[in-house]
Design brief:
Helix content: 40-55%
Distance between the termini: 71 Å
Largest sheet: 10 strands, antiparallel
Structural class: alpha+beta
Low-confidence stretches: 236-241, 245-250
Strand order of the largest sheet: 4-3-2-1-5-9-8-7-6-10
Number of domains: 2
Order of helices and strands: HHHEEEEHEHHHHHEEEHEEHH
């Protein structure tokens, strides 16, 4: 088989080349979007979590994350007396989750050893990032700051390439790759939140008709959520009295994700440089 002849024929056939470019760019766009997850939710992926909903519902299970939504897999089937059916998981799309979510809690004592190590690695990387992670975060913040300019420049560059392929008929398809890459690489950059990454902060969250304040370490933020670790939170008996937590306390240290639409960064916490043990919460956990 003469592959050179095949490629020569393909590149000389504008219609065939246009179709090929559309297929390739569609695959790239789909692949990039499938791997694009919210940074805060991504930290809790595959961990045992509790979704606290605005209507008071509590949904406990293992968090599965998809590009279109989330799934919480129950440890045991939940039987619905009204529907006369067993439910094995709770599924919600991202827009529905954002509209109904009060917070996501991750209880350290419910994590298995694998997820405890995963949590520790994630916090260690935030506490002492490598030069590549520092460069990546700086680059992403720069992309956010100059997002419109970067988007136009990349679209112009890729559009120029598209204009030279198949008589210019593939320009829009190739330009769409640049738009997708910028959208995925960027984040809702906030200079004030960026300043307090890895430091104690006090946030104020709207809960029904009241507002509650919580102190914790700001681990990460995204366009939709804030992620805090080592939050001191008063748990009810249902949450505290579990098999994994044989000696419940009135106050426990947890990790939490809260929607930015409900939460305001209200105060800075102590300014002392945190030790790794403080970030990991090991001092707090050992104290209980």
């Amino acid at each position: 088989m003469d592959y050179k002849l095949i490629w020569t024929t393909l590149f000389n056939n504008a219609l065939a080349l246009t179709i090929l470019v559309i297929i390739i760019t569609s695959i790239i766009n789909a692949f990039v979007r499938q791997r694009a997850h919210d940074k805060c939710l991504k930290d809790f992926r595959n961990c045992n979590v509790t979704l606290l909903m605005k209507d008071g519902a509590r949904i406990k299970g293992r968090l599965k994350l998809y590009s279109s939504g989330v799934e919480v897999e129950y440890e045991q089937p939940v039987y619905d007396e009204k529907e006369k059916q067993s439910h094995y998981s709770y599924i919600t799309m991202h827009p529905e989750l954002e509209a109904n979510l009060q917070a996501v809690h991750r209880y350290y004592w419910e994590l298995n050893p694998k997820n405890r190590r995963k949590r520790e690695r994630s916090i260690r990387r935030s506490h002492n990032p490598s030069i590549f992670r520092r460069f990546g975060r700086t680059l992403r913040n720069l992309v956010n700051t100059l997002r419109d300019a970067v988007n136009r420049s990349l679209s112009l560059f890729l559009g120029k390439i598209g204009g030279q392929i198949a008589g210019g008929s593939a320009t829009s398809e190739i330009s769409s790759v640049g738009t997708t890459l910028v959208a995925v690489a960027s984040n809702a950059y906030d200079s004030m939140l960026e300043k307090y990454i890895g430091r104690f902060v006090i946030v104020e969250t709207k809960e029904g008709e009241t507002r509650q304040k919580y102190e914790g370490i700001l681990k990460e933020y995204s366009a939709k959520y804030l992620e805090l670790v080592n939050v001191r939170f008063g748990l009810d008996k249902e949450a505290a009295g579990t098999r994994q937590d044989p000696q419940p306390q009135a106050d426990r240290v947890i990790d939490m994700i809260t929607p930015r639409a409900l939460t305001t960064l209200r105060h800075a916490g102590k300014k002392d440089k945190l030790t790794l043990n403080e970030l990991l919460g090991l001092d707090e956990f050992s104290a209980h």
